[in-house]
Amino acid sequence: MSRFLALFTFALLLGGLLISGCGDSSDADPVLLGEAAYVKRATAICEGTEKKELEGAIDYSKEHPSAKAVEMVEPVLLPLLERQGEQMRALGVPSGNEAAVESMMEEFEAALEESKENPQSVAGASTNPFKEYDRLAKEADLVACSHVP
């Protein structure tokens, strides 16, 4: 039961959190996307990350049955968030909304760095460094990319 509770808590903690799986990061300059195309691609990235987070939590839980959710942040969540950030950057910014998306991505990168320094901060609603990014993502119609549990 305790293993299930830890897994369930982790899923709730990270459920709204992030992005992966689609697109290929390359050295080519990103093409400016229209806003609708950007939202669609970014949403797919975030939904892919969320799926990988849940899969990672299940795998980690199997290998570490007594692990608490906060113990999964560093080995499971942070690498996925880093990849998400790379994929989001590879998208470029939507034409007409460059400043807002750039601000959102800067906030994401700052929150990721803070999370690396203090992984436990992600587990608390009041200490989660992704709060401002979450707000900016929602404003950009990227609800799937919200990070605060």
Give keywords.
0% strand, disordered N terminus, 60% helix, 149 residues
Structure described in brief:
By secondary structure, this protein is mainly alpha-helical. 60% of the residues lie in helices and 0% in strands. The protein contains five helices and no strands.
Please give a structural write-up:
With 149 residues, the chain is mainly α. It has one domain (2-16, 31-145). Helix content is 60%, strand content 0%. The chain is built from five helices and no strands. Helix 2 (35-63) packs antiparallel against helix 3. The protein starts with a helix and ends in a 10-residue tail after the last helix.
Total strands: 0
Helix percentage: 55-70%
Given helix and strand content, the structural type is mainly alpha
Detail the poorly predicted runs.
3-28
| Count of individual helical segments | 5
- The outline comes out as globular
Q: Approximately how much beta-strand content do the residues carry? A: under 5%
Number of spatially distinct domains: 1
Instruction: Report the order of strands and helices.
Output: HHHHH
The CA-CA distance between the termini, in Å, is 22 Å
Whole-number average pLDDT? 83
Largest sheet, in brief, is: none
| Computed CA radius of gyration, to the nearest angstrom | 15 Å
